[in-house]
């Protein structure tokens, strides 16, 4: 049996699970906040005498009763039971997202905002801690920064993943590097900056935020879009963990030790 190798440092493991906790509560409390006004706009303000919406979830009255309707870029969809109108007929919920996906599960904007801001700052603090540790121990340079050979090998790596052929190596494969790098250095910073742009206090202190994102409503729409991309990344990430061997992958992220496949090279500490 192939021997175990040390793959994940304590800093990587602690920050990883802290991010998981933060992102779950940020998503569910964010949906609570979204439900206070379940629509998104482009620009500085929402339209009254004009329509600049890109997404709207609502309940509409029909001859057969209320139905959920979602409008996306002018196209309308019946989303009864999921968005707009959800829950059993005996206890209908008329809100954007169902209460099962929000924290708290009942309508409470104030509590949702408190939870959201707490985990937002915890996420920022954890990201800064990870960044310092990653620069100090070489994790970012060694494991996450895509190099020329990674980009050249990316097409073949994508094809291998589509065929469910995974390389259980000591190092991240090109697709892992690119996806992790994008999430940590693009999506998470964009999420933080768009969140700050929605704060009137931050806009007064840093008015350039409004200029960068084209208005507070545009920042809110981008914030929502990035959240959707993070959810998509999470779902794909979980699927890849299951497909690649959940026991081995979870052991790596809990204990740090990983069992590479027999056909891959194992690197010594000096070679890393």
Automatic annotation (TrEMBL):
GO cellular component: plasma membrane
Domain Cytochrome b561 bacterial/Ni-hydrogenase residues, every copy: 156-256
Cited Gene3D superfamilies: Transmembrane di-heme cytochromes, Chain C
Record's protein name: Cytochrome b/b6 domain-containing protein
One matching Pfam family: Ni_hydr_CYTB
GO biological process: respiratory electron transport chain
Keyword Membrane in record: yes
Localization terms from the record: Cell membrane
The organism of origin for this protein: Ferirhizobium litorale
GO MF entries: electron transfer activity; heme binding
Keywords, alphabetical: Cell membrane, Membrane, Transmembrane, Transmembrane helix
Transmembrane segment boundaries: 16-34, 114-136, 178-202, 222-244
UniProt topology in membrane: Multi-pass membrane protein
């Amino acid at each position: 049996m192939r021997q175990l190798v040390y793959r994940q440092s304590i800093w990587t493991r602690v920050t990883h699970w802290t991010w998981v906790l933060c992102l779950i509560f940020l998503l569910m409390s964010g949906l609570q906040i979204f439900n206070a006004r379940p629509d998104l706009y482009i620009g500085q303000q929402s339209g009254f005498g004009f329509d600049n919406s890109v997404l709207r979830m609502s309940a509409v009255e029909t001859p057969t009763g209320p139905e959920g309707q979602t409008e996306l870029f002018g196209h309308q969809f019946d989303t009864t039971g999921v968005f707009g109108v959800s829950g059993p007929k005996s206890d209908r919920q008329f809100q954007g997202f169902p209460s099962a996906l929000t924290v708290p599960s009942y309508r409470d904007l104030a509590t949702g905002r408190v939870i959201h801001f707490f985990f937002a700052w915890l996420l920022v603090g954890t990201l800064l801690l990870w960044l310092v540790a990653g620069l100090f121990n070489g994790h970012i340079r060694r494991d996450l920064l895509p190099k020329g050979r990674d980009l050249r090998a990316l097409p073949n790596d994508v094809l291998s993943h589509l065929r469910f052929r995974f390389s259980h190596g000591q190092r991240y494969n090109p697709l892992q590097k690119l996806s992790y790098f994008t999430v940590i250095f693009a999506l998470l910073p964009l999420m933080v900056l768009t969140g700050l742009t929605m704060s009137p206090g931050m806009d007064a202190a840093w008015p350039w935020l409004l200029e960068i994102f084209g208005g507070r409503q545009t920042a809110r729409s981008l914030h929502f879009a990035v959240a959707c991309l993070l959810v998509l990344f999470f779902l794909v990430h979980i699927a890849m963990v299951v497909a690649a061997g959940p026991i081995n992958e979870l052991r790596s992220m809990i204990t740090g030790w990983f069992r590479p496949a027999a056909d891959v090279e194992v690197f010594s500490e000096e070679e890393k």
